[in-house]
């Protein structure tokens, strides 16, 4: 609020677009309240974000049994403040993140990792992502084989790996 007063925007009327959705399932209720605004002149850093058009706040309330948690997240976007479109984009992005995490956990048992020292967590995460991308490319060549199965097969036998990859053609 101090920033608004400093810039003398205290009399400015901001038009907030809002949208709410509720999901029920898996023993929980989640209510997401989306709020977007496209009047962002007051933001000092707006000039550093190319094509910045809107800011979105998402307040998620999750109810599991008698326990309620509330989380607030903020997003910047190059889209106008079309709140329904922004909400769908945010939900699909979260779905992609969750799916990637699930694949990494199933394939590499990532949640059980005890790596904690220094930059090791970021380093091993990058190695896992590279390995996952290679496995997904191999999966395209060997239709019907899961990423987890390919990983195991490659670990057991170098011959299996060489059947799918021409390592002389791969530039590392």
Key features of this structure:
24% strand; 5 helices; alpha+beta
Please characterize this protein's 3D structure.
With 172 residues, the protein is of the alpha+beta class. It has a domain at 1-81. Helices cover 41% and strands 24% of the residues. It is built from 5 helices and 4 strands, in the order αββββαααα. It has helices at residues 2-6, 83-108, 120-141, 147-156, 158-164; strands at residues 17-25, 28-37, 54-64, 67-77. A 4-stranded antiparallel sheet has the order 1-2-3-4, with helices on one face. A hairpin with a 2-residue loop joins β1 and β2. α4 packs across α5 (158-164). The longest helix has 26 residues, at 83-108. The protein is elongated and about 70 Å long. The model has no long low-confidence stretch (mean pLDDT 79).
Helix and strand composition category: alpha+beta
The neighbouring-strand order within the major sheet is 1-2-3-4
Assembly context of the chains: single chain
pLDDT averaged over residues: 79
Profile the largest sheet: 4 strands, antiparallel
Strand content: 15-25%
Radius of gyration equals 23 Å
SS summary, helix count = 5
Helix content: 40-55%
The helix/strand series, from N terminus to C terminus, equals HEEEEHHHH
Q: Looking at the structure, what is the overall shape? A: elongated
Span between N and C termini? 51 Å
Low-confidence stretches: none
**Secondary structure tally: strands:** 4
Condensed summary:
This protein is an alpha+beta fold and about 170 residues long. The protein has 5 helices and 4 strands; from the N terminus they run αββββαααα. It has a 4-stranded antiparallel beta sheet with strand order 1-2-3-4, with helices on one face.
């Amino acid at each position: 609020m101090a920033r608004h007063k400093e810039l003398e925007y205290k009399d400015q009327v901001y038009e907030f677009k809002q949208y709410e959705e509720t999901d029920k399932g898996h023993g929980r209720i989640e209510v997401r309240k989306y709020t977007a605004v496209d009047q962002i002149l007051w933001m000092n850093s707006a000039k550093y974000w190319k094509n910045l058009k809107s800011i979105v706040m998402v307040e998620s309330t999750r109810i599991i049994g008698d326990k309620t948690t509330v989380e607030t997240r903020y997003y910047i976007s190059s889209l106008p403040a079309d709140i329904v479109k922004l909400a769908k984009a945010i939900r699909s992005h979260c779905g992609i993140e969750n799916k990637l995490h699930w694949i990494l956990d199933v394939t590499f048992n990532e949640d059980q990792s005890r790596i904690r020292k220094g930059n090791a967590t970021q380093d091993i995460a990058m190695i896992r992502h590279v390995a996952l991308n290679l496995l997904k490319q191999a999966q395209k060549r060997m239709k019907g084989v899961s990423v987890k199965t390919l990983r195991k097969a490659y670990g057991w036998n170098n011959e299996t790996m060489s059947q799918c990859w021409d390592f002389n053609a791969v530039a590392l």
